[in-house]
Design brief:
157 residues; alpha+beta; Alpha-Beta Plaits; SH3 type barrels; 2 domains; five-stranded antiparallel β-sheet; four-stranded antiparallel β-sheet; binds zinc ion
């Protein structure tokens, strides 16, 4: 990365960077982060539509927080699996990984089948199971319909 790129979005001394966000998803991730107590008043920088070798265009978020809570990461893995999570300390990336789709989803997404019982029974919390280790398809435990991960409707906390 050259220094000009650093000027586009300021470096952070320590915190979390969510990188390789497909362009257009950044605002949704910001909304998700801000809906969590504890992150709602965190300093967050959102950058949109950067050039990316990998994606063409990408969004990026920088969050001043020691870490992202597990539940936030679980939510993010539904909304934006494939993004890169980097931990920054002392202006340097200390660790990074690609966020993988979850194996199970419970209570974090809604079934988009309008007739699904999980949308009508208050006690029925929608549950989905991944069809295979490398699959992005999920089966609803109630109506048994299969959906692509990005079709599922995120439930904000
Ligand atoms: Zn369903």
């Amino acid at each position: 990365m050259n220094s000009e790129r650093h000027l586009l979005i300021p470096k952070i001394e320590s915190g979390i960077v969510i990188d390789h966000v497909p362009a257009g998803l950044g605002a949704g991730i910001l909304e998700l982060l801000r809906s969590y107590a504890g992150l709602d008043d965190a300093q967050i920088t959102l950058g949109l539509n950067y050039d990316s070798n990998k994606l063409g265009r990408k969004d990026m978020l920088k969050i001043i927080a020691p870490e992202l809570p597990k539940k936030v990461l679980a939510h993010l893995s539904i909304l934006a699996s494939g993004v890169t999570i980097k931990r920054v300390d002392n202006y340097r990336v200390q660790g990074k990984y690609s966020l993988q789709p979850p194996d199970h989803i419970e209570g974090l997404a809604r079934c988009i089948n309008p007739n699904c019982i999980s949308n009508h029974e208050r006690q029925a919390s929608a549950r989905f199971t991944r069809l295979g280790e490398t699959s992005h398809k999920f089966r609803c435990a109630y109506c048994e319909r299969v959906f692509e991960l990005d079709e599922l409707d995120i439930v904000l906390p």
